[in-house]
Amino acid sequence: MTEANTNSRSRRVADSPEPLSIDGAANVAERIVENVEQVIVGHHDVTEHIVTAILARGHLLLDDVPGVGKTMLARSLARSIDCEFSRVQFTPDLLPTDVTGVNVFDERTREFEFRPGPVFGNVVLADEINRAPPKTQSALLEAMEEAQVTVDGETYQLDRPFTVIATQNDVEADRTYELPVAEVDRFMKRLSMGYPSPEDESEVLRRVTGRHPIEELEPVTTGADVIAAQETVAGVTAEDAVREYVTRLANYTRDHAELGVSPRGSISLLRAAQARAVLDGRDYVLPDDVQAEAEAALAHRVRVGPDSAGSSGSELIATALRDVPVE
Question: Which pLDDT tens digit goes with each residue over 192-245?
């Protein structure tokens, strides 16, 4: 099942504007975070992680129990940006062409016409992605890695900005499909929200009494501004010492786990650290930026075993941050 945003403000952005200043890019990020927090209560760190991933041209996997606000967080983010939003509700009978699009024969012109699928959005919500079989999940692989889709031998470029936000529930394992390792590796970050505190939950109940706050949420930035902020992030300086630190962290996981972090994971961590630097108003990356992004960007790429330095990817990354020196 697919759903596209069809309101008048929904449009695609393709051209690359000039980069914003550091302060300008940080302001874009702050506006988005503040707007999302009109709907989402008590998850400031998660919201910041999502915004930095978007500015770093990454994709996100929200993995948690049902009902904690994963889909609402994604929708709030999409409403905060004046660009095209589309949603795919992943189900066991969903086909790859339901995601990418399909060629349809037009009897009037006697030719095939390509009808784009929901992946041709700027912010694409892949809701409950693990409800669909791996064949359908893999329909996102090319789009996430290369920002393009190939259908019947024809390649179509996706417009910028382009971000996939996928949600999955970590319960009902007998009714879901595990995401392939190659697909998990394409997500820049994997995040969990967790249950709210009693105080935050009371605030949620207060806000949803009457009309839901997302119904009144308006965009606070444009797709063009997001692209310009992405260009700013791409220009942030990462000195040799910082890059070498990222490399050492990645190699630590390869030496202490059955499956360590891939080079794609190292790239994702560095880009996320660049975005974190911009969020803090700097045009250069510090080791602190790397450490702030390491767990979200690396833990889901690690497969631990009996001899690993931790019982989970998160524990292993925490150990790496403790043991790998900053030089």
Answer: 888 888 998 898 888 888 788 888 899 999 999 999 999 999 999 999 999 999
Short-list 280, 278, 297, 288, CA closest to 241: 288
The mean pLDDT of 14-26, rounded to a whole number, is 85
Residue-wise DSSP of 71-130: HHHHHHHHHHEES-EEEEE--TT--HHHHHEEEEEETTTTEEEEEE-TTSSSEEEEETGG
* Amino acid residing at 256: H
Owner of token pair 């403000």: 9
For residue range 125-145, list pLDDT tens digits in order. Answer: 999 999 999 888 888 989 999
Q: What percent of the chain has pLDDT over 70?
A: 94
pTM above 0.85, yes or no: yes
Nearest to 46 by CA among 70, 25, 79, 11: 70
Q: Does domain 2-228 have CATH number 3.40.250.10?
A: no
> Which tokens in the block code for residue 210?
């009457």
Question: CATH classification of 236-323, choosing from 1.10.8.80, 3.20.20.140, 3.30.1490.10, 3.10.310.10?
Answer: 1.10.8.80
